[in-house]
Each structure stands twice: as C-alpha cells, then as structure tokens.
C-alpha cells in the first residue's frame, strides 16, 4: 500500500514547521524574528550546560543565525513598557521558556504538581508545609529572591558546603521548587543564570495567573500546538512534545480531526498513523545548513529523529568518558533536508577558540561537501560565541576533510 507522504516530503514538512525554511533576517535580527522562531517551536528548552551556549539560546541561532542574546534575555527576564515580557519559565517538554499566554494551558500540570514535581520535594512539603507561607511573605515583601536570600530573611543559617548537591539544597530551595511547579511562583534569571523566584502574577500578570482552563481544553490546545510545530507527527511525537501521555493525546485527537485541525495520514516507512496539521507546508526543497542543539525541538525526541532522518542520536554527557562514542556535547549538523554529521564542540573562552573535539559524518554523504559547508557554519558559530578561531581535533572520520576546509 502506498503511503500518502514520502519520507523526504515528511522531512521537508517538519523542517518548514520548525522554521528552517523561513527567510533569514536581512539585517540584525530583531525581537520580531525571535517571536517568529518561538511561534514555530512554541517554547525554548532550558539547560544549564554552558560548554558552548546554554540550550535556550541555540534554537534561535539555528533558525536565524547570529543574534544578540539580549533579545531573549529581555523577553524572558525583564518587563518594561518599551519591551514587555514575552516568555516565562515552566515545565513544558522539560524546563522551558513558554509564551506567557500559554501559562494558563499549564494549569492542569500545576494542579498535578501542587505538592512538588519530585518525591523528595513532596516529602519536604509534607514536613514543612508552613514554610511555603513564610517564603511567600518574604517574596511579597522583597520581590524576586534566591533561596539564599529567602533563608537570610527568615534567619535560616545553613553551612555553605551544604549547597553542592540537590539533596543538600535545603528545605527553602525544595519548597520554592514545589511552589514553582504548582504555579504559585515563577522565576527570572540573572546574568549568571541564577534563578530568582517571584510571584507568578508578577511574571505573567494577574489575569493569566488566575485563569482556569478545563483540563480537556488545555490538552486539546497543547496537542494542536504540538501538531503545528511538527507539521506531521505520530501520537508518540505529539505526546512527547509537551510530555503528555499518549492517552491524553488520543482523548483529544478526535476533536482536532473533526475540526479539521489535523488530518490522518501515513508516511512511508512509519509504522504508526500520522497526523498532518492543516497549516503544514511541503516545500519543494530545503536549502539551509546549521548546527543544532541537543535540545532542539527538531531532534529532542530521539525516536522521531531516527524515524525522520535515519539519524541515531544520543547525548553522552552522563556517559563515562571512556565509553563515549561521539563525545561530550555533540551537536547534529543539518544540511538541507538531512542530518549528515555531528560534532563535539567546546568554547575555549580563555583562548578564544572553538574546539571541534570530534567530527563524525553519516554514511552515503559527500564528505567534501559536508566539510566545506560545515566549516563555514563552524566559523559562524565561533563568531556568535565571541571566539576568533576554529580548531579541528583529529578525532572522527570527518576531521581530515574538515581541517582542510576551516
């Protein structure tokens, strides 16, 4: 039986849905370009690893090229009449910056997390439920605060050595995390990426913080957004995007089909039924090359990445060094409508060098062409990170070709 959509078509649909076929900025990227990117991806996943660039900065770079990170910082961490806040931090796929208008769509999750997201945090809340009222009183009085600042205001003394691990963070930190998960608190970040907790209504506004959306309606809206971000997707793909269950997705799909938001379809080589969003486009070709964050929405659901691009990808940060196959912080390399290579990158800020610790290429691609285009994109990445040089280490079957092109 012939599938409705070929695999190359599905790749182009996905790339268009994620913004990789949108026009590049003619000049310096602006706030409107940032809004366009997040309009495609729906959120920006946050991760603290800063060996190259923190995860929430990378998807915008991958779609519009070098830009001023201050655009995102101001949109997420500050709020002025001239530059009103656009995004707030909450649990989407994982920790993420979401549009503030999406805050009410997460109320069902906040209800599920009203005593905390983790078992240990829930245990702390049960032991110290009254601490939440004290924390709120401090934040009301002194504004956005770190757990250490809250401890100081409450007269809580804790040895500095106790701040190293999750389990030694102290009860204030855990209760702040529980209040954040429940939606009572949100947060801003400073230049050092330190989280300052604040009342959710101060971050997203009273109306959004107080708006209650029925669970089924919120699920329906989130699945519709996930479908738009994918272009074409299976139930598993849709569920993973906002970390929903497949049962939650299946419960609202009939509504979306009946309303014409998505259409059932099939993709060549995919075992499961796919759903095509009504706004999905199928470009005749894709001409774009860029480096992708390990947490980019295009690739963060690894089964879809393998199904869509025939690219087996695992992040190896938590793998012992001796057992790593491709490296510590490995970025997939998108070239047109294929993921053709991967590079282990490190920003050596002291030496002002982008270190390419390893470079690997996929089978059945022209290594010379990949090396030439990747060399240009590595130099662009280096300039964006404020680095002067690119240094290619000899590890990986692409290294020799790449070294000749840099």
TrEMBL record:
Matches recorded under Pfam families: AlkZ-like
Q: Which PANTHER family match?
A: CYTOPLASMIC PROTEIN
Spell out the protein name for this chain: Winged helix-turn-helix domain-containing protein
Organism of this sequence: Gordonia malaquae NBRC 108250
Question: What does UniProt list as this organism's lineage?
Answer: Bacteria, Bacillati, Actinomycetota, Actinomycetes, Mycobacteriales
């Amino acid at each position: 039986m012939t599938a409705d959509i070929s695999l190359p078509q599905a790749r182009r649909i996905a790339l268009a849905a994620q913004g990789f076929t949108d026009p590049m900025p003619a000049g310096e990227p602006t706030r409107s370009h940032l809004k366009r990117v997040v309009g495609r991806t729906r959120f920006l996943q946050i991760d603290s690893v800063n060996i190259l660039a923190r995860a929430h900065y990378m998807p915008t770079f991958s779609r519009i090229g070098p830009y001023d990170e201050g655009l995102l910082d101001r949109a997420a961490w500050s709020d002025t009449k001239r530059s009103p806040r656009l995004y707030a931090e909450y649990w989407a796929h994982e920790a993420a910056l979401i549009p503030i208008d999406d805050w009410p769509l997460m109320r069902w999750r906040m209800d599920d997390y009203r005593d905390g997201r983790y078992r240990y945090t829930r245990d702390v809340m049960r032991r110290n439920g009254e601490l939440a009222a004290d924390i709120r009183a401090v934040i009301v009085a002194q504004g956005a605060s770190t757990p250490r600042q809250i401890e100081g205001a409450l007269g809580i003394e804790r040895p500095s050595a106790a701040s190293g691990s999750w389990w030694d963070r102290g009860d204030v930190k855990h209760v702040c995390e529980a209040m954040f998960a429940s939606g009572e608190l949100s947060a801003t970040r400073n230049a050092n990426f330190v989280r300052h907790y604040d009342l959710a209504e101060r971050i997203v506004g009273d109306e959004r913080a107080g708006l209650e959306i029925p669970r089924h309606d919120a699920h329906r809206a989130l699945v519709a957004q996930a479908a738009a971000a994918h272009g074409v997707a299976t139930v598993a793909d849709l569920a993973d995007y906002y970390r929903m269950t497949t049962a939650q997705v299946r419960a609202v799909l009939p509504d979306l089909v009946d309303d014409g938001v998505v259409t059932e379809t099939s993709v060549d080589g995919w075992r499961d039924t796919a759903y095509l969003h009504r706004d999905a486009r199928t470009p005749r070709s894709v001409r774009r090359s860029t480096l992708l964050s390990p947490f980019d929405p295009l690739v963060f659901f690894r089964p879809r990445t393998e199904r869509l691009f025939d690219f087996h990808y695992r992040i190896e940060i938590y793998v012992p060094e001796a057992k790593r196959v491709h490296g510590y912080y490995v970025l997939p390399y998108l070239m047109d409508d294929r993921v053709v290579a991967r590079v282990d990158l490190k920003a050596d800020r002291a030496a002002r060098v982008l270190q390419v610790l390893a470079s690997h290429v996929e089978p059945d691609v022209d290594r010379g062409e990949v090396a030439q285009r990747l060399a240009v994109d590595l130099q662009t990445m280096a300039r964006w990170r404020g680095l002067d040089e690119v240094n290619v280490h000899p590890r990986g079957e692409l290294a020799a070709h790449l070294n000749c092109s840099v």
